[in-house]
């Protein structure tokens, strides 16, 4: 019992040290990936291919998620607004929620869960087949050739999906709020602009862009450093999705707090 108690602090220190080491290596991978961004000829073709792949695998799921999200927010907010006698404000609350919080998070989680898992498995398969080591032997930096296009593809598609989430969510909310609950279309769209500023859309796209970088960086790092064998690749995929979700929510909190301090909300 005494020995097990003495080993507990050492185990905790080792885990903390391992987590800090992985965080540092992840940051190094990200910085090294964007360092040679200017050399477009090395990664432009791979960038287009990855953009098409991510758009193809995420466009339909993101719409299937955004419509129920908008409908759920509309139903919940509409019931509360009806009790308060302010049902015409449902559109403003729905659009504000979709643009400010729901859209960038949904886009990032879709890029991580659907596209990021595919990126992790692809990089993991290259790792266990020693393709990354072979590229280094041939004098090719695998981070510049493989990670850089995936970073920019993830950020680009995440920003584009953010617009799709907003559109699909607002359409879902419009159906349930206007058609099902009887709010006039004029009141719905007139109230949609009362709580928003142009800077809200800018920060939303910026957050989605940053979240796409995070998702792609974590996916590439986990795949390139996975254990050998199919089990190692599967664990890397699971770990990449979990870590991306944690980092994205933490980054969203920080960015939202900074934005609210710099740009006070419209009253």
UniProtKB/TrEMBL annotation:
Spans through the membrane: 51-73, 93-119, 151-176, 201-224, 236-262
UniProt xrefs under InterPro entries: Permease_MalE
Keyword Transmembrane: yes
Pfam families attached to this UniProt entry: MlaE
Protein name, as recorded: Putative phospholipid ABC transporter permease protein MlaE
Gene Ontology cellular-component terms listed: ATP-binding cassette (ABC) transporter complex
Keywords: Membrane, Transmembrane, Transmembrane helix
Keyword Signal: no
GO terms of molecular function: phospholipid transporter activity
Highest taxon above the source species: Bacteria
